[in-house]
Input
Amino acid sequence: MLLLIFGPPAVGKMTVGRAVCAVSDFRLFHNHMTIEPLIETFGYGTPAFNVLNEEFRYRVLEEAARHHVNLVLTLVWGLELESDLEIVQRYVDIFDGDVAFVELRADLDTRLSRNRTAHRLEEKKSKRDVDWSDQNVRGLERHVMTTERPAPVAEPLLAQHRHLVLDNTHLTADQAAQRIVAWLADPGVGTLPAWSPAT
Output
């Protein structure tokens, strides 16, 4: 199974994904596992970086599916972009549709605070220039990264699979993981409406 955790930068995808793996048989494949080594060699966003980043991810997913590894993949997904939809659809196809989506949400101030945590900076070398990284978090706000905003490009794919929307602004990673694992364990529950401690 592929559990795809998506949401804006610094929302906690990697940390929550790791917490899910700690209490289940999932393994973590967070997006910076391919980004960081390729940046050092080719530079971010170069043609070689883009080609290899996608190829490496695709091959890891292929082998995970082939060897029946339950995988957590984290991703920043521009929900309005056809190009991003094509990539995510390829990932879904690898797992023959055995996929669930978790959409994490948190307000911008929370994400900017999380952007500077020691754990994040340790795992993601490219984020250690925190002023640049803060600007990147703000700059990506131009994209649709959660279904709080209309996402007609992505919504048909999300509607075909289980989809949990989780506001983790006031949740620890362990609390978010417990909710995700409980949701996965209940096959009768498909898409859940947005949830936060206030609802």
